[in-house]
Amino acid sequence: MSNRKFSKGIKFLLCLPVIALIATALGYIVMYLWNWILPEVTHAGQLNFWQALGLLVLCRLLFGNFNKGGGNRFREKAWGMRSKWQNMNDEERAKFKEEYKRRCGGWGNRNKEAI
Question: What are the transmembrane regions (predicted)?
Answer without folding.
Answer: 12-37, 49-67
